[in-house]
Amino acid sequence: MFYATFKGIGKSDIAVFYTEQERNDWVNFKDEYSIALGANAENSTFERIPISAGTAKKRIKTMLHKKDEFNHNQEWYINK
User: Fold this and answer.
1) DSSP per residue over 27-74, as a string?
2) Which of 16, 28, 24, 13 is nearest to 72 (CA)?
3) Torsion over CA of 55, 57, 63 and 68, rounded to 10 degrees?
4) How many CA atoms lie within 13 A of 42 on its CB side?
5) How many distinct structural domains can be found in the chain?
6) 9 exposed, middle or buried (CB, 10 Å; 0-12, 13-18, 19+)?
7) How far apart are CA 12 and CA 56, in angstroms?
8) Global pTM value
9) Measuring CA to CA, which residue among 23, 26, 32, 25 is closest to residue 3?
10) Which end of the chain is more exposed for a tag (fewer CB within 10 A), N or C?
11) Can you give the residue range of the structural domain that contains 24?
């Protein structure tokens, strides 16, 4: 599993991906949903960054798990 989050907003939600490429595509706004919405690094409020499995696993213990409704290869851990 590969993990990413939003930079600079504290302990934000964590996105989970099955492959490193899917994670990198999301971080770089090259995922299908971002492309469909026209989202990119210049027009998005928050920068997306990869995080290590160790960092993610420490934080997700207290978060809610949710499947992404638009990208079936992506899951989320959401702050309560």
Assistant:
1) HTT-SHHHHHHT--TTT-SS-EEEE-HHHHHHHHTTSEEEE-SS-TTE
2) 16
3) 100
4) 1
5) 1
6) exposed
7) 11
8) 0.74
9) 23
10) C
11) 2-78
Predicted confidence band at 73 (pLDDT cuts at 50, 70, 90)? confident
Q: Could you give the CA distance from residue 32 to residue 80 in angstroms, rounded to a whole number?
A: 27
Dump pLDDT digits (tens) for 6-65: 887 777 788 889 999 999 999 999 999 899 999 999 999 889 999 999 988 877 766 555
In angstroms, the CA 7 to CA 2 distance is 16
CA–CA dist 64, 8 (Å, integer)? 21
